[in-house]
Automatic annotation (TrEMBL):
Residues 9-161 form the Nitroreductase domain. It holds the Pfam family Nitroreductase. The keyword Oxidoreductase applies. Belongs to the flavin oxidoreductase frp family. This is NADPH-dependent oxidoreductase. It comes from Megasphaera massiliensis. PANTHER family: OXYGEN-INSENSITIVE NADPH NITROREDUCTASE. CDD domains: NfsA-like. Keywords: Flavoprotein, FMN, NADP, Oxidoreductase. Signal peptide: none annotated. The keyword Flavoprotein applies.
Amino acid sequence: MNPMDVLLNHRTIREFKSTPMSPQQLNLLLDIAKRTATSMGMQSFSIIHVVNPDLKGAIAEVCNQEYVARVPDLFIFIVDAYRNSRIARERGVESVGERDSDRFFQGWTDAAIAAQNMVAAAELSGFGTVFFGSILNNAPKMIELLKLPELTFPVVGVGIGVPNQKPQLKPRMPREANVFEDSYKVFDSYLELLKDYDAEMEEYYDLRDTNRRVDSFTKQIAGKKAIPLRQQLIQQAEAQGFRFYDLKE
């Protein structure tokens, strides 16, 4: 398949064959993730490869997704300002700025795009992938499980393996709804804009699971409920030593 077609046909895989990737494949994907562009070249992220089955099981409980425990290769991408803080201190420099929101969001961006780079490379290599934003259902528990020091924070999990399913291609909203030129475009009615997309999504879910009715995209948006601990991410990051207010040197 043409590489562009691989990327255009991205599917989330939730069931994998038990075969893990080879050490050579693992090293290649890790090298590709590490080659991702990073903010100011600071490389303010790290990757934890989870191999302990008991740890996978505990992470699956955080995610409330039992299949996390069966993912052959599981990676957790984290904000990592701790390493650069230690480097600076060993150089005799200690700055209150090492804890600021800029450092946090640099690391968050670095981690997120490195995770996407790994996913794209894995799919181009014939593997299936899945993102686990659900690790943030209980970030303090993830911090405990992964033994994260201060100035670090979990961002996203990535599962990779040989697919053991071939799900349908999930539709995406029309380009006019979220791709604009020069400025943001506001529509008079988003329900009208997404009417055809709603119908397409209803058909997708009906075909995927005929025994469980799933509403249209716009109804899902309107019915989405917050996860309490995920409403406290800023406070949780502050507990890790970051400061989300103006700092003076």
